[in-house]
């Protein structure tokens, strides 16, 4: 009973006009930092979607943002759709909100999108990032922590600063609850069905469960920047209870047909222009690069680097300066975020798959014991060098990654041309369709039924009605 009373009180506060009228003025320093970091973050996290879909997302964001209490919200809030294969949304305290096209693919209607964007605006309105900063300032990473952390960063000062601020946005459970409540407030006041909150969280819960089940086969790892929102069954149940307590559940706008129309053709998983993870193999069709990671290792694909993680070490693959020695020196410098150069032996010259290569390993003493930092650089052509930088426990050297090191190769033009993106296709159910027949069209080699059910929030026994719309993931054409 007490929980119900408290919940009703929270919803009453969320819906009260006075609560919406309290203005929150963004800190000018936050705004300046967000403006400075925006283009860097967009580039690092896959680039920005443009065109009608991006404008549609921004319009939904402004619709809910108008009820956030952020002063001059139509000008202060900015909404960007990221071309990222990671399902996530996040915001900067200076008024910038980002949602990935992968997260949009999990949604089923506009109310779910409105909740995701409203939740992020809620973090801004409640000033959550500054609260997290106070905790972060108390901890100073060791050199070992700096080295391990730097391998996930691009090694450029402005990007590192932007990414470090993004890392601070890993919110507490209480902050997530508050942002959920605020997002629900904006959702209802903007005229949407408050059930969009619970449906969005349910979609994420299904996706997380599916990802955990198939991860060993896909070799895909979710990067750390995506873990900003602790997800729990309690959040889902709480959102549903709050929606029911409004008395408006199922009565607001969902705009499903319009949303699905905007979703048609959106990329799912990797954009071939950034390279594709397929099982243990990474392939970049435009650069004609391919390599495979050791068994049990996972990959995370970024805009300009692929990060590899496994039981015996971590690695990263990226492009360096056009000289082998320069690339190796840069790789070691990047490990310390440019603070100092790691002493390392002169590289040994060799040939790998017909390419001139250079290899070296340095022993680094850290607070947690010795580690081996190794670099293998390949002279791809006269203008390009690619390299792996690897961290393993002291004494392991290159051994855990030898199969990967020896697998790097050029692919043929026909192999590159065969790589196509996965895209969302909205299918209208016909009388002869079944869950199984629709699932068989999913553009995956395994777990086709499970992926179809998760994507559409269905069970194997869910009835299909002719004329209904469902989402499929099929192979599409690359953008010109």
What this model shows, in words?
The protein is of the alpha+beta class. Helices cover 42% and strands 20% of the residues. The chain has helices at 2-15, 17-21, 28-44, 52-65, 73-76, 101-106, 110-125, 128-136, 143-150, 157-167, 173-189, 195-218, 233-245, 256-263, 324-335, 402-405, 413-417, 435-439, 448-456; strands spanning 78-82, 89-92, 96-100, 267-268, 276-278, 281-284, 289-292, 298-301, 305-310, 313-320, 348-352, 355-366, 369-379, 385-393, 409-410, 422-428, 469-475. The strands form 4 sheets. The chain has a 7-stranded antiparallel beta sheet. It has a 4-stranded antiparallel beta sheet with strand order 5-6-7-15. Strands 1-3-2 form a 3-stranded mixed beta sheet, sandwiched between helices. A hairpin with a 2-residue loop joins strand 11 (348-352) and strand 12 (355-366). The protein is globular. It starts with a helix and ends in a 5-residue tail after the last strand. Mean pLDDT is 86; it is low at 1-20 and 135-169.
Give a quick account of the main beta sheet: strands, pairing sense, barrel closure.
Answer: 7 strands, antiparallel
Low-confidence stretches: 1-20, 135-169
What portion of residues belong to β-strands?
15-25%
Percentage of helical residues?
Answer: 40-55%
Class computed from helices, strands and strand pairing: alpha+beta
Q: How far do the termini sit from each other?
A: 59 Å
What is the strand tally? 17
List the helices and strands and how they pair.
Elements: H1 2-15, H2 17-21, H3 28-44, H4 52-65, H5 73-76, E1 78-82, E2 89-92, E3 96-100, H6 101-106, H7 110-125, H8 128-136, H9 143-150, H10 157-167, H11 173-189, H12 195-218, H13 233-245, H14 256-263, E4 267-268, E5 276-278, E6 281-284, E7 289-292, E8 298-301, E9 305-310, E10 313-320, H15 324-335, E11 348-352, E12 355-366, E13 369-379, E14 385-393, H16 402-405, E15 409-410, H17 413-417, E16 422-428, H18 435-439, H19 448-456, E17 469-475
Parallel strand pairs: 1-3
Antiparallel strand pairs: 2-3, 4-16, 5-6, 6-7, 7-15, 8-9, 9-10, 10-14, 11-12, 12-13, 13-14, 16-17
Helix pairs in contact: 1-11, 1-13, 3-10, 4-7, 7-11, 7-12, 11-13, 12-13, 12-19
